[in-house]
Specification:
With about 130 residues, the protein is mainly α. It contains seven helices and two strands. A two-stranded parallel sheet has the order 1-2. It starts with 5 loop residues before the first helix and ends in a 5-residue tail after the last helix. This is 3'-5' exonuclease. It comes from Acetobacter thailandicus. Keywords: Exonuclease, Hydrolase, Nuclease.
Length: about 130
Amino acid sequence: MHGITTETAKKIGIREAVVATAFYDLLHKADLVVAHNEKFDRQIIRIMFSRLKRGWVFDKPACDTMEISAPIVDLPPTPRMVRAGINKPKAPKLEECIEHFFGEKLEGAHDALVDVRACARLFFHLKSSGAAV
């Protein structure tokens, strides 16, 4: 999805402990965590923290732009959702939100910096419209 292979990560990536420490320090400076599909990201971070065995927790309040956007973007449920008896709007991808709210294509999606900028733009749009805290 993002084009980073295990080989590339091992060759030029940053060790997980370094990334976790930096993230942990930034996390404790933040009042709010903003993410698109925040529950997924929170679980990944919790797993990373647990591997380090330092007792770190990820307990900050969060704003999930995907959850807030879902009823506004109002995409039809997928056939799989319908088969499972779920009759609510499909969770929109970040690209779908950018298209809906700004009428633009998200070029370079799944690149971390592109996604962070798009998520921030979406969050501030949702906040200014009163949909987000």
